[in-house]
Design brief:
The protein has 446 residues and is an alpha/beta fold. The chain folds into three domains: 30-151, 3-Layer(aba) Sandwich (Rossmann fold); 169-283, Rossmann fold (3-Layer(aba) Sandwich), CATH 3.40.50; 289-429, Rossmann fold (3-Layer(aba) Sandwich), CATH 3.40.50. The chain has helices at residues 34-40, 52-61, 79-82, 88-102, 115-119, 124-135, 155-164, 184-196, 230-238, 251-265, 270-291, 309-319, 334-343, 356-366, 375-383, 393-396, 405-437, and strands at 18-22, 44-50, 72-76, 108-113, 140-145, 175-179, 202-205, 220-224, 242-243, 299-302, 323-329, 349-354, 370-373, 388-390. The strands form three sheets. The chain has a six-stranded parallel sheet, with helices on both faces. Strand 11, helix 13 and strand 12 form a beta-alpha-beta unit. Helix 11 packs parallel to helix 17 (405-437) and helix 12 (309-319) runs parallel beside helix 13 (334-343). The radius of gyration is 24 Å and the shape is globular. Bound molecules: iron/sulfur cluster. The site of iron/sulfur cluster (SF4) has 12 residues, from helix 2.
């Protein structure tokens, strides 16, 4: 190998006109992010200031935690708070004081806003500032919004990480920061590959503990591991850190390009890059080829939901030979997904935002082999005979980097296989029974 892998220079979708729509949307709210964030940050507690609906959402999505000491909870706004009859700030102080007295293990407390707290304009930034003064230096209190008003579910993680950046200590040493909450095993794989190339020191945001040695400054270069971290990206840039734009590490090609962007920054020799990546690349290619057999030549339509849509469309079209009809994302930040757009062959409609009825009409007209969409749309579309993949599953499942590339392809091939099996079964049922029933008044299965 004489040079590191390079991005294709032309022919992608970066300059494709974007269809922008602002109408009714079908998405989960940002509270969803707490479900994976609380597992990553071992001394954090997420206190949602919300309604019983918010509590139900969290409890049903992460219900197993009721058997352990949970790291999230809901301070429920009662009618007196909502009507302004009680001072919600006083009430909140009481709840937080009780919580911190009972749980000395909490070192970072996030006050998480919701639709109700936003509607009554409860100032959680003011509350976090006041509580930080009261409980410093043992507990750091921050706030972010997980509200479902004008947001989509992955923005919860973005808002959480962005809230942490301004309070990170200044550190101008040369370092690589990996940004985004990944399952531990996946994060370890990424760090292992980078360290094998001699890259370091490597830090991660979010760090597992508040006391971990994590600072940011002019020597920091950062690579995003998730495409939905726009606010965090802006916050890090404001702290003097520099972004390394790259395709996201989905599939063999995306992972190689993501690693190559970092390797180039750190002056890794092409031969060393080849030596470190050759075996996992070959494994990934083989796994994708096996898992994507029934994806080849099939069409896919993305509704806007997780913000992973553009990198995933790049993976499915280039590595699994699918045809993308429409690739839709809640927000398109070209500074973040530009390299993936460069690699996505022109052809599909690229759309931002949603007017759900109009988009459903487009999907019904296109009759794609697979629709990637939120939970709320999946069942009705399945009832219309369309195969769907729940977008939220792509955030809950380990899908990044080489070793998970086959599983990623498998997540898309399973619903298509199921739809094909159902179709086959219904054809044989029709042949066996309905054809006979239609043959005459006395015909039927014997
Ligand atoms: S934050 Fe809003 S959308 Fe989310 S559960 Fe609470 S009320 Fe529902």
């Amino acid at each position: 190998m004489t040079e590191l892998p390079r991005l294709p220079s032309a022919g992608g979708c970066r300059d494709t006109p974007i269809l922008k729509q602002r109408g009714q949307r079908e998405v989960f709210c940002g509270l969803t992010g707490i479900i994976w964030l609380h597992r990553k940050m071992q001394d954090a507690f997420f206190l949602v200031i919300g309604s019983r609906t918010c509590a139900h959402l969290l409890q049903s999505a992460a219900g197993v935690m009721i058997f352990a000491e949970p790291r999230f909870g809901t301070a429920i706004l009662e009618e007196t708070d909502l009507a302004g009859l009680a001072d919600a700030q006083d009430e909140l102080d009481k709840v937080v004081n009780e919580l911190l007295a009972r749980r000395p293990d909490i070192k970072q407390l996030f006050l998480v806003g919701s639709c109700p707290s936003e509607v009554i304009k409860l100032d959680l930034a003011k509350a976090a500032e006041r509580m930080s003064q009261t409980h410093a230096p043992h507990v750091r209190v921050l706030n972010f919004s997980g509200s479902g008003i004008e947001t989509t579910f992955t923005q919860g993680e973005d808002a959480c990480l962005a809230s942490m950046v301004p309070v990170l200590p200044k550190d101008d040493q040369r370092q690589l920061l990996l940004v985004g909450a990944l399952p531990d095993v996946v994060e370890e794989q990424a760090i292992g590959l980078l360290e094998a190339m001699g890259i370091g020191p490597i830090k991660v945001l979010p760090a597992p503990r508040a006391t971990d040695d994590l600072g940011v400054g002019s020597g920091t270069v950062y690579a995003l591991t998730q495409p939905f971290l726009g606010d965090t990206h802006d916050a890090l840039t404001r702290r003097g850190a520099r972004h390394l734009p790259a395709p996201f590490p989905f599939g063999e090609e995306g992972t190689t390009q993501w690693l190559a962007a970092i390797a180039t920054e750190f002056g890794v020799a092409p031969d060393l890059f080849e030596q470190v990546t050759a075996a996992p690349r070959a494994r990934a290619r083989k796994a994708i080829s096996q898992a994507s057999e029934n994806l080849r030549g099939k069409s896919v339509f993305f509704f806007p939901d997780s913000q992973l849509e553009i990198p995933l469309a790049r993976f499915l079209t280039r590595e699994c030979s699918m045809d993308a009809i429409e690739v839709s994302a809640p927000f398109i930040h070209k500074g973040i997904v530009g390299p993936d757009l460069d690699m996505l062959a022109s052809g599909p409609t690229i759309s931002e935002g949603q007017d759900v009825d109009l988009q459903l009409d487009r999907a019904r007209d296109a009759r794609p082999d697979l629709i990637v969409c939120g939970l709320g749309l999946a069942n009705p579309l399945e009832a219309e005979g369309l195969a769907t993949k729940w977008a939220i599953e792509l955030v809950f499942t380990p899908v990044h980097f080489y070793e998970q590339a086959g599983d990623l392809a498998g997540l898309f091939s399973r619903p298509i296989r199921r739809a094909e099996t159902l179709k086959l079964n219904s054809v044989s049922f029709d042949e066996k029974y309905r054809g006979d029933v239609g043959a005459g008044p006395h015909a039927g299965p014997q």
